[in-house]
Q: What sequence folds into this?
């Protein structure tokens, strides 16, 4: 399970899952030491966390501004209980979006001073694929067709003093027609732009970590297809 808290990726896994310990800059045993904010820098692994400790960690990540904290991986003997608890802690909002391709370029939007991918909340009784297509076409003024699923992301935010967990299903799409392409101003979108891979690389430096995750998963899909055809 991966959740983006304040755009910081937090991965919660069971204790028996293998890990590459060389990836982490800091390792903490929550059973024997108290969490210290000063230790949470770069890529952090925290072992043996209880449900209550995970809750405290998520609240702390949500309340404070964090510098030089890139990711946190949590292992817990209470993994199943934590999953159930998180579903009760947050109000779940379903959303869907798309990574749109055309002639080797990707469609990006500029919203709230960040480069992003088109996405939005699903309507009542709307399927994820249907919602993704509708949101992309509404926000960008293009016509697209579905090509396949990339991944799902989860991120949290607070609205009207309520804890919200937004689950977004992401799909790869191909553009059919972009003659009427324009930003949906009422959704705070300032610009819609086709970007080359190099332009996307630079845009992701001014984007959200969750969007970078979507691109990594998309690239992994391409690598798998290359490996299968080799």
A:
């Amino acid at each position: 399970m991966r959740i983006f808290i304040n755009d910081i990726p937090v991965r919660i896994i069971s204790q028996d899952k293998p890990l590459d310990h060389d990836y982490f800059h800091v390792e903490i045993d929550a059973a024997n030491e108290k969490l210290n904010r000063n230790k949470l820098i770069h890529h952090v692994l925290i072992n043996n966390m209880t449900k209550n400790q995970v809750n405290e960690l998520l609240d702390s990540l949500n309340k404070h501004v964090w510098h030089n904290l890139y990711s946190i991986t949590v292992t817990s003997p209470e993994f199943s209980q934590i999953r159930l608890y998180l579903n009760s802690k947050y109000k779940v909002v379903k959303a869907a979006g798309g990574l749109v391709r055309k002639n080797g370029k990707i469609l990006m939007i500029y919203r709230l001073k960040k480069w992003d991918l088109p996405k939005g909340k699903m309507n009542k009784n709307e399927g994820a694929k249907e919602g993704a297509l509708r949101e992309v076409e509404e926000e960008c003024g293009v016509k697209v067709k579905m090509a396949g699923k990339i991944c799902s992301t989860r991120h949290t935010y607070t609205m009207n003093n309520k804890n919200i967990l937004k689950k977004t299903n992401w799909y790869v799409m191909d553009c059919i027609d972009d003659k009427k392409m324009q930003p949906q101003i009422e959704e705070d979108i300032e610009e819609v732009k086709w970007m080359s891979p190099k332009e996307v690389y630079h845009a992701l430096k001014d984007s959200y970590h969750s969007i970078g995750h979507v691109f990594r998963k998309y690239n992994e899909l391409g690598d798998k297809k290359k490996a299968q055809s080799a």
Residues 2-89 form one domain. Confidence is low (pLDDT under 50) at residues 226-230. The chain has two domains: 2-89, 91-229.
